[in-house]
Amino acid sequence: MNENSRYAGAQLAILHESDCQKILQDVVAKRTPAIMSYLSRDKWHVAKVLLTALSQDRLSAEGVGWMKRPRPINIQAGQPVGISFKHGYGKFVFDTTVAALEPSPDPSSGGTIILAAPDRVGVIQRRSYFRVSVPESLKVNVVFWHRGSKDAMRLSALAEAQHYFQGRLVDISAGGAQVKVPLQADNGKLQAEDFRKGQFIGLRFTPMPYETPLMFSAQIRNILPAADGESFYLGLQIVGLEASPEGRDVLSRLVDVVERYHQINQSSVKQPANGGHPPLADHSVGTQAPNLVTVNS
Questions:
Q1: Is the pLDDT of residue 149 over 50?
Q2: What are the angstrom distances between the C-alpha of 288 and each of 10, 24, 270, 277, 283?
Q3: Could you state, in order of their start, the residue ranges of all structural domains in the chain?
Q4: How many CB atoms lie within 10 A of CB 221?
Q5: CATH annotation of 3-126
Q6: pLDDT tens digits, residue range 77-93?
């Protein structure tokens, strides 16, 4: 059985240690770029790296384009980090720690980060990283806020201080989301200028009625005006979920939400009466990939 068929039916699978070594060896040999994320001083940082060497217990990473900028902020030995990369049939994620910082033969890399080699690597099918629209039958409200100290634990305090915002979820994937935000908020006039590209926010929403809310951090990738002139869109990249077991639990739920939304959308398309909407392409055969844009994460 090849690797593609082994995980063809899995939403989120954990590789065995021997498979981890094979995948990492291939990624090092092909110089596949990866994303390293980590939380420092209660702020998320994201950096592009190359995995350059693998031994039995060590994995070396070097920065991409760090010559123009210093080494990632506050990275240090003992720092927990998350790594993600696209390879073959899916996206691979794992958490580890920084074992040491060393100089690199390549001055443009900003130095070598020595990571503890992981013994567990999760893999998610690429289709989960296609964005899928929220079904028309659902209205999914989103509460979000600027990143601050212990956001998840202080949500009620932020609400009392009216430091939170509300919007509506438009689409979602395992790697990103789009939220429509009204300019006129309950707690006063809200402007798109209140947000900026690259800013980190926390957000929470309930994907289906009566379910436990999902909560995670995201980085604003774009801010676009809506055609109605009364709202704007935030394009978000989800960050940090690969950096801890708890984060991967959230990621697993996101993968499930994407699949359920896609199935609901496909079911509504297949019905003879579709409320006057034009028919949409049916991608339920084969990979079942939604016909929407991929998330660049």
A1: no
A2: 13, 28, 14, 21, 5
A3: 3-126, 130-270
A4: 16
A5: 2.30.110.10
A6: 999 999 999 988 789 99
